Amino acid sequence: MLEDNEKGWYLRVKGGMPLGRNMGKKVVVGMSGGVDSSVAAYLLKEQGYEVTGVTMQIWQDEGTEAEIENGGCCGLTAVEDARRVAQYLKIPYYVMNFKKEFKENVINYFVEEYLQGRTPNPCIACNRYVKWESLLQRSLAIGADYIATGHYARVKRLPNGRYAVCHSATAQKDQTYALYNLTQYQLAHTLMPAGDYEKEEIRELAWRLGLPVAQKPDSQEICFIPDNDYASFIDRQAKERVPGPGNFVTKDGSILAAHKGITHYTIGQRKGLNLAMGHPVFVTRICPDTNEIVIGENEDIFTSSLCCDKVNYMGMEDLPEPRKVTAKIRYGHKASPCIIEKAGEDKIKCTFASPVRAITPGQAAVFYENDCVLGGGTIL
Question: pTM value?
Answer without folding.
Answer: 0.91
